[in-house]
Amino acid sequence: MQCLRQIRCVTKLRAAAPTSRLLKVTNLLRSVSTLQQKKQEMADNKPWVLISEIGDKGFHEDVVDIINQHFHIVCLKEFLQNPALHGPKIQGMFMWNFSPAAEPSLLSCLPSLKVIANGGVGIDHLDVPYINSFGVKVTNTPGVVSDATADMAMALLLASARTVIEGHLISVDSKTTHVPQSLMGVEVTGSTLGIIGMGHIGYKVAQRSKGFNMRILYHNRNRRSVEDEQAVGASYCEKLDDLLKESDFVVVVVNLTPDTTGLISHRELSLMKPTGTLVNVSRGLVVDQDALVKALMSGTIRAAALDVTHPEPLPRDHPLLTLPNVLITPHIGTNTRGTIRKMVQMMVDNVLAAVKGLAVPNEVKAK
Amino acid sequence: MEMADNKPWVLISEIGDKGFHEDVVDIINQHFHIVCLKEFLQNPALHGPKIQGMFMWNFSPAAEPSLLSCLPSLKVIANGGVGIDHLDVPYINSFGVKVTNTPGVVSDATADMAMALLLASARTVIEGHLISVDSKTTHVPQSLMGVEVTGSTLGIIGMGHIGYKVAQRSKGFNMRILYHNRNRRSVEDEQAVGASYCEKLDDLLKESDFVVVVVNLTPDTTGLISHRELSLMKPTGTLVNVSRGLVVDQDALVKALMSGTIRAAALDVTHPEPLPRDHPLLTLPNVLITPHIGTNTRGTIRKMVQMMVDNVLAAVKGLAVPNEVKAK
Known about the structure:
By secondary structure, chain A is of the alpha/beta class. Chain A is built from 15 helices and twelve strands. In chain A, the strands form two sheets. Chain A has a seven-stranded parallel sheet, sandwiched between helices. Chains A and B meet through helix 8, helix 9, helix 10 and helix 15 of A and helix 6, helix 7, helix 8 and helix 13 of B.
């Protein structure tokens, strides 16, 4: 393939006019260099890994160097053109934004696959026992995502409460003539925050809210220690209903499991204050979206701010997209340069360990 | 009925989108007869002599000589908001009229707004929302990248009531807090929020990931942030302004944003408000602008109006006026 390209390139070079000869020479040299690089890759001992792509639908090009340092990368599109070519060599798969999907059709092309490293801590989209049955481990990225996700929850809460989107759109609108006195938000300082799910991320949300003098309630499968509660001034609500009734802001920070699917539905939304705001940074399926639409349209709750929906992105005709009291961000809870680099480094560490047959730091075990 | 009523008369700009929110008018109505500016100007001689107080909201009605001379009984102008840079206090005093503002009650909401702007800018909330609701969006954009807030360095310029509350809120995000102020705060104040004093503004600008401007507008702070200050900031730095538009040299800001001298700006205040519709700030991708809504919550506005009512009542009754702004 490379040789054919070279021949075409040289032919074009001979036929080229003098002024473009320098460009043609440069291209030829580049082709030669690529060929030499490929030869080197074949001789190199770096293990091979599969990723979806580099770019807006895959890995940010800024972070690819972290993977490249230790692995040869094959992108899914190239892989699928000839699965037999690279398939037997691939020992690791880097999953980002649920892609490449761990389908049987793909897994059966990867006989040497040892590990699927997921970017992110939530693995509800992965059938871990099924993947394990192929002799493949699953890893995630706990811990490193917590700060950025907690920051995102606060960003959504504040943006919704203080009408930042509406304010900005009015400010930059070509038809705006005056400062709108009717644009009214709700108070954050001194309000009541209800955190559903007080794990790593939920607790960090509590830590951030404390600085705003918010009264903090939380609901969790298990109660936290007294020290943990006192450190952030959080009160345990054994009954979710109590948290819903008393909160001005309800922040959902749970894993998606069979127990939490549809956790927030008609009943829960109707228990919330009409001035209440729902913030979701967990998974779209934790919230019953049809119930949410109804609640927002009827004024059952004031507003919602969602970094996650189901599916992602929503169908373009979904009612959530046009409601005035909804803020939606496209699952960017971990989208900072620092956090993404930490996630990718963690994925690399896990894949290296699995490839070398060592203990895998962040393996997700089937329950 | 109104004539028999003993309630004093006050002048306001209007009720509605350019004036007082209708939700809060009841607070004023409880104690006063209200005349709106438009009605007043139709026949100044009718209500003019009766008006003892003026409620100023969003700089309106303006304390122009032409207006003041129609209000011979005016005792007080109560401003909604703590900043009174738009008022010539000695001049107004010369008419025998006091000026009051609303300190304290605006601090929480304004500090919350500063944090809202900082977070929205850092985490690309506007861009994210617009992509999410765009009819042409087909996939989740992996290229949408923000900057880390947790563990970053915050530089607060102006550590008064509001600036200090910004520090209190940032502490929960594990931010390293620097501040620059005319006067250094007490050791206890600094330690309570973990803030370090920067005697030189330049040092704060060089080290901060987020620079939050929370000063009063005075001759000293006009154009405080200009070309030099912006060039000292990190190219990854974000400027947040919740003070007054004139504290920042807007032309310098436009240049800095276009050239990548700083990463982004988030402004609740500009000069003028609103900006001319052809102003470059309105189309730069790395600018977030909100229309001076730093105190726009139901609770805070009600507190502000109540404070204004208390001040006007005191002035009308000849009692000590709680929040009078004295000429320096």
